[in-house]
Amino acid sequence: MSEDGRIFREAWIAGVHKHFPGEPKPSYVTPWEETPAWERAAAAAVCGQVRDFIRVSAGCSARLSREQKGQFVAVCWTAQMYQHFEDPKPGYVAGWGDLPEWQRETDADIFEAIEQSA
Fold this sequence. Notes:
mainly alpha, globular
């Protein structure tokens, strides 16, 4: 579980560095070891969900568009936010169309990083 979360977190940090306009908030690039426990658990869960999705689709998930891959990560993350918070911040549960471009691109990068690690 820890390794799955680390894969997710490292892909998130790399995506933030690549796509975020300007200087990201420190919490966006906090190393795995300093990431709060709830966030490590959520990252591991989403990574597991992506892995399961790749497995049950018999690898055909590779044919999804980047947007579809990012949407999958985003909706899995949203479910985790509802699991960890009674009343999550609106930005934690925003719909795909309401996410900033940098975050949509980062979510797609996360899916692809998990694909490559599978």
